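Researcher: Last one for today. Full complex below.
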Amino acid sequence: MTLWQSSLQALALSMGGMTALALAMDRHYAQLKPRDEVPAAHRMALRVLGGLLLLAVWLPAIRSWSATVSTALVLGFWSLGALATVAGLSWSARRFAVAAAVMALLGAVSCLW
Amino acid sequence: MAQSKNEFGAGKGSFRQAQAWLHTWCGLWFSWLLYAVFLTGTLAVFEEPITHWMTPEHHAHEQAQARSVDTAQEAESSLSRRLQWGLAYMKRQHPGADMWELWPADAQGGGDLRVYWFDANGQYAAARLDPKSGNAVDAADAPKVRETLGGHHFVDFHYQLHAGQVGLWIVGIAALAMLVALVSGVITHRRIFKDFFTFRSHKGQRSWLDMHNAVAVLTLPFQFMIAYTGIAISCSTFMPAGIAAYFGSSAEAVKSFQVALNEPGKPQRSGQSMPVPDLESFVLRGQALIGQPVRAVVIDYPGDAAARIGVYGWNAADDLNQRLSSTSGMAMFSAATGELQQLRLPGGVDGGVGSLTQSVIGGLHMATYGGLPLKWLYFICGLAGSAMMATGAILFMVKRRGKHQGEFGSSTSTVYRMIEAVNVAAIVGLGIACVGFLWANRLLPIELSQRSRWELMVFFLLWILALLHALLRSPPMAWRDQMTALAVLCLLLPVLNFLSTGDHLAAYLLEGDWESAGVELFSIAVGVAAVAALFWMRRPKPVRKQMPREVSKDLSAMVDADSAKQGSLS
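Model: Here's the assembly. Have a good evening.
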C-alpha cells in the first residue's frame, strides 16, 4: 500500500464523513430535499455515519504511517475533506452528495479489503 | 464585527463585541504581513523542487546520479576507499582546521563524495572529490552554474524577511498577533457550528465572510499548529531570560550556550599531537550501533590527542513516515581510545524531554515527516491560511463599501484608499513578485556577479512597483492590471523556460522530473486562477445585489469625490 493510495482512501473517507455531517444539518438537507427540517431518524443516522467515517480515516493513516504521525495527518485530511464538502455543496449539492457517497463506499471497502 | 459608529472602540459593548473589535484591527494591520509570511512559507514547503527548477545546470548531474544508483554494489565496496580519499585530502589541504567533515556516500553507498571544514575565518567551507579517483573536482572545470538562492529565498523570507534577527522578531510578533486573531475570531464567530459547511456564492459581502470563515474554521488545527510551532521554534530568541540567567547575554555567552546545547561533552584541545586514525573501523561500528548507513563523519580537533569522531546516519524515507522527530542516528567515539562516548538512536536527541519536544516542534512546523502526501496537506492548508488573511483584508474594505464608519475621523476616506491599495499590492503584488523572482532566475545573465542578490532585488522591486501602481491607479483598475500581470507571468513561465534553457514541460513529464514539472504546473494553475478572477471581476453586475468588487468602484468614486474636495490623493 503506497502512501498515495492511503492518502486517497483517507480523503475519500473524510469527504464522505464530512458530507454526512453536513447533510444532518437542516440547511444542507434542504439542499437535497425541500423540507424545513431533517427527520430525527435521518439526522441521527447521518451523524453516526459521519462520525464513523471520520474515525475510519485513522485506518489507512495508521496502516501507512505510525500512530503519532497519523494524528497530524488525520487532522489534515479532515480539513481537506471539509473544504471539499463546502465547495461541493455550494457547487451542486445533489451531484456532490452522490459523489461523496460513492467515494466513501469505495474508501471503506478498499480499507477493509 | 465592528458595530455602528457609536459603539466603535476597544472597551465598548459586550465581550463578543470587544473580541470583534480586536479581531478586526489586529487582523487588518497584520494581515498583509501574515499573508506574505504564509504564502512564502507555503511555497517553502516545496523548497527543494523550486531550487531544482531554478538550477537547470544541475539537472544532467542529478540524472546521472540517479542512474548510478543501479551500480551501487560496485560503489559499496569502495566505502573504505572513499573514506581514505576524503581523509587524505583533508590531511593534505587543511591540516590545521578545527573540524573535518566527510560525507562519503549516499545511503546506497554511491553518489558524491564531499568534504567540509571550518576555514581560518570560522566559516563553513566545502569541496567535492571525484568518487572514482579521490581528486578534488576543480570548480573551474564544472559547468558554469547560475548563482541563485533558489527555493531557500521563500524559506528565509517567511521567517526572517531577509532581515536577520530583526526580521525574526517582526515575524514572531506577527505570529503572536495571528494567534490573537484566531482566538478572537473563534469567539466572534457566533454561528461557528451552524455555518460550518456554509458557502453562499454570489452574495457579495456574505460570500466573502463565508469564504473567510470556511478556510479559517475548517483548517483551524493547522493554523494554530503552524503559528504556535513557528513561534516555539525560535523560543531561545523570543524568551532569552533563561539562557541569559545561566550563560549571560554577551555574544560569547550565546556561543557557549550553543555549544552546551548542540555539542555537549565536547572536549578541549589537549595540545598533544596524534594522527587521525583510519576511519573505517569507526564507521562500521557506528553504522552497527545506530542501524543506519553512514551519512557524515565529523572529526573534532583532527591531529590532536583529544580528537573525537562522530558517525551520523542517513534517515531512510520510510523512517520519517513513522516518527515526528527527524533526527538521524549518531555515535561519537574518542579517536585515541576508540571508546564510545555518546550514542543517539534515530529520532532521539541529546538533552532530554525538552530537546525532544523542540525537535518534534521543529518537525511539525517544517513538515520533515510523513513524506510527500503530508507536504501536499501542508501546502493546501497553507494556501487556505493565505486565503484566510486575503479574504479578511478584502472583507474589511467590502464592509465599508460606500459607507464611512468614520474610524479615522476626517481622513477616513484617505486611509480607506490606502488600505485598498495595500490590499492589492499585498495580495496580487506579492504573487507577481514571487513569479517575477522565477523570471529573474531565467533572464539575468549567468555571469552576473552577486547574481542571487539581483534575483532578490527583482523580487522586492516588483513588489514595491506593485504598491506604487496600486496607489496611483483607482482600486478596480489596480486589481485588474495586477491580476492580468500575474496571469501573464504565470502562464508564460513554461514558455520562458523553453526559450531560455530549451527544457519544457512535456520533456519533464516524459523524463519523470516531477519537481520541475510540478513548479510549472502550479504556475499554470495560478495563471488560470488569475484569468478566472479577471473574468469574475468583469462579469456584468446586477443592479440591486451589491457584489464584492463593486465596493472598490463605489469606494473609488467616493474617494475621488472626496479627494477632489481635499486635493490630497489623486
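Residues 16 and 101 of chain A are 6 Å apart (CA to CA). Chain A has a mean pLDDT of 93.
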